[in-house]
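Study this protein:
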Amino acid sequence: MVKPALRAQIAIGETTVTYLPDGEGWLNPAAFFPSSVPDGWATHSEFLDERGWFPVSIGSFLVRAGGRVVLVDLGLGAVDFAIPGVASFKAGAMLESLAGEGLTPADVDTVVYTHLHHDHVGWTSDVAPAPGFPEGCEVAGLTFRAARHLVSEAEWRHWERRGAFPGPDAKAVQEPLGGVIGFVTDGEEIAPGVRILSTPGHTPGHSSLVVTDPAGADDRRLIVLGDIMHCQVQVTQDHWTCVFDDDPEQGLRTRARLLKELEDGNTILAGGHFAGHVFGRVVPPALRRAWAGGPAAVGAGLTVVQ
């Protein structure tokens, strides 16, 4: 069956985008994608374990562009917990994955959040924001202290003074960020060739990122999805909505619009929760749209650690 993704890297011109694993989750489709059951997984059984649950990868994308070092999302942190009947999560490998690229937290100059759900903010501080924040646990500070931390203002305002799961814990995430958070807008360039793309629905201020070659030598683009899709099965089953979607109808519209754009053959997807391969393409429909992942699909410049 398909497993959570390993480290992988792709080059867009001189810019590299690297998936850094932090951990994994296993989700009950009936709880997470209610509209997918009972029959939606019949032709996608390779994604299901013996319980009928599907895996999600959890990590960060490291973008190195023009001398800049950017992390997109911060995984779960060092956690191991389950929500009975719904999901299980285990993570904690982010800093080790970063060290494998020859980097320390001090080398990161920018952290940008696609959104502020718990599985995207885990390494914000030295305390992982798992459910049931440890009693008496004190937060010493930010993990990436030299970095600017960016998110859309709509996303920040949505969660402000709301620390309940699955949002950002008030003590481990919101308080440490309170004095340093910066706001980004649709189309804003945060590093050479790296721009914000507003993609609301999953959360009110959800953003994706578009990565292009600032030199213009490579005409491909890469889109870091965030949580527009949690599983590549949604490329074909784009009507599936997630139980944590803030505005499911807006999420459907955002996904439909982006999927249509992605059929251009020149765009690479980076799906941070995709199992197996996080990088791939959307194949235009002959009979129906399809997902193609891995080196054969994206062409030159992709390396995967097995």
About this structure: The first helix runs from residue 29 to 32. The helical segments are 29-32, 94-99, 153-159, 170-177, 248-261, 295-298. The chain has a mean pLDDT of 92. DSSP finds six helices and 17 strands in the chain.
